[in-house]
Amino acid sequence: MSTARLPTVLVVHGPNLNLLGRRELDVYGPLTLAEVDDRIRAEAAELGLAVDIHQTAREGAIVELLHDGVDRVAGAVVNPAAYSHTSRAIADAMRAVPYPVIEVHLSNIHAREPWRHVSVTAEAATALIAGLGALSYTLALRALQAMIGG
Ligand code: DQA
To answer: What are the two backbone dihedrals, phi and then psi, of residue 107, each rounded to the nearest 5 degrees?
Structure first.
């Protein structure tokens, strides 16, 4: 089916998430990023959403992807990864854009090391879903679909 007229959701994976499936399997599980993206695409197709998926290790690139979404996307799902705990720039970009941004984490950041308990980006996000593995992303898509229609 053509996705030309469907609302588009921006999906951004931050640093080190390209190594999923090989990285700390006990924490992040066995799925590769490509497999997570397959689940995201399948869920989006069911929900009547188009997805624009990116992975980057660079903080500024995440800021720019959020900016590029203005006038183009209906919402965003962002896993800022370690930048969640430090990046005021990504937090301000989330505040600056007019569309809802759902922050997701594969792991439950509140059940891990104390430095992960604070997410400065989640303070700016519309909502936060953490600890459900790939389901964090697909539930975020469902929430956005409920918010924006699809
Ligand atoms: C993560 C949690 C972060 O603390 C960590 O730096 C990551 C992944 C998650 O998805 O669980 O890289 O965002």
So the answer is: -95, 165
- Our answer to whether residue 28 is catalytic in this structure is yes
Q: Say how many C-beta atoms besides its own lie within 10 A of residue 23's C-beta.
A: 13
- Amino acid letter, residue 33: L
* Tokens found for residue 150: 């699809």
pTM: 0.96
Q: Which of 26, 85, 103, 107 to mutate to test the pocket of ligand 1 (most atoms within 8 A of CB)?
A: 107
Region for residue 111 given its phi and psi (left: phi exceeds 0; alpha: psi -120 to 50; beta: otherwise): alpha
CATH architecture of 3-148: 3-Layer(aba) Sandwich (3.40)
Over residues 64-103, the pLDDT tens digits come to: 999 999 999 999 999 999 999 999 999 999 999 999 999 9
pLDDT tens digit string along 18-69? 999 998 999 999 999 999 999 999 999 999 999 999 999 999 999 999 999 9
